[in-house]
Structure formats: structure tokens, C-alpha cells
Amino acid sequence: MKPELKWWRIIARPFALLFIPIDIYFGHATLLYLLGGLSVIFIGTDLYRIFSKNPLTSLFKRKEAHRFSSMTSFLVSVFISFLLFHDQVAYLCLVFIIFGDLAGKMVGIRFGRRRIIFGRTLEGSLGFLGGSLVSGFILCIILHIEFSWLVIGAVFATLVELFSFYLDDNFTVQILTGGCLEALIYFEVI
């Protein structure tokens, strides 16, 4: 069964990259207010959809009719990531979930044949890893981020995405990957 795609959401997700220059040029507080406001708007929209029994299927997936949307999970996790983690860790986690997830989805839908776990395919997971590594590499060059953070983070993010069975990977990838990188940095492993 092919997943239900809402193309506006796929097209809109890369615009989240704007959070990086907003953080750099306008300051961390400005970014947190913006992310907090967007998160509240999406949470409010989800609560309206859930309690009014109006699923807004033109904007949201049918499977999200009785739960919070993946867009809300994404925004909340970006907010938490920028709130708790080093800026460069938050930047990496952001590109992993934007481009790793996008590449994993596209490769998995188009070429996915070998099922691994809960419908996830080897090809989709390799697409996630490839998208994370390529986008992260570009980010590392531009912002002078440690290469070891990229490699460890991309592999860990791929594993988190693969094993996110019951929780939304839009939330778990950023939070768990960022937490892993922060722990490794704190204990001076990387």
C-alpha cells in the first residue's frame, strides 16, 4: 500500500531551512518565538480537527484524523531541538529530518523492495542515510561543523527513523539524534 502524500507538505518542508539563517542573523530568541508561535498554531489546528470531527483532509492525511499531524510533531521537535541543543547539532538534526526523510520517502516509494521492519525498506533507509549525508555534508562545509558529528548523526538518525514504530519519526529523529550527539560531545567522545 502506497503512503498518502500531501504534496504541499513535501514542498513546504525544505522551507524550514530558513530557521538556520533566522537563528544566525536574528538571534536565538527570535527563532524560538517564531517556532513556538508556529507550534502553537499547529497544535491548535490539530486540537480543532480532533475535537470538532472536521479532519480537514485537504490539508492533513486521513490517518492523522484522530491524532496530531506529522507537521506538528516536526515543528515541536524543531523547537525543542533549538531550545536544548548546540546550534550546530540542531542544524544537523534539521537537515537530517528534512532531506533524509524526503530522500528516504522518495527512494522507498520508488525503489523499495526489501522490507526490513514494519513496512520500512532497505532502499528507503539507504535513501534516508544518503539524503542525510549529502545535505549534512553541504551544511558542514558552509558552517564549519565537525565532520564526525555528521557521520555519527546521520547513521544514528537513520537507525532512529528505521525503529520509530509507534512514535512519529518527525519527532524522534531530531530529539534522539540531537540527544545522542549532545551526549557524545559532553563526554568528549567526538
Element layout with pairings:
Layout: H1 7-12, H2 19-26, H3 28-52, H4 70-84, H5 87-111, E1 115-117, E2 120-121, H6 122-143, H7 147-162, H8 169-186
Helix pairs in contact: 2-3, 3-4, 4-5, 4-8, 5-6, 5-7, 5-8, 6-7, 7-8
Number of domains: 1
Question: Which parts are unreliable, with pLDDT below 50 for 5 consecutive residues or more?
Answer: none
How far the N terminus sits from the C terminus, by CA atoms, comes to: 41 Å
Mean pLDDT: 93
Q: Helix and strand succession?
A: HHHHHEEHHH
- Order of strands side by side in the largest beta sheet? 1-2
Proportion of residues in extended strands: under 5%
Structural class: mainly alpha
Number of helices: 8
Description:
The protein has 190 residues and is mostly helical. It is 71% helix and 3% strand. It has helices spanning 7-12, 19-26, 28-52, 70-84, 87-111, 122-143, 147-162, 169-186; strands at 115-117, 120-121. α5 (87-111) packs across α7, α5 (87-111) crosses α8 and α6 (122-143) packs antiparallel against α7 (147-162). The mean pLDDT is 93.
List keywords for this structure.
190 residues; mainly alpha; 71% helix
Question: Outline of this structure?
Answer:
This protein has one domain. 71% of the residues lie in helices and 3% in strands.
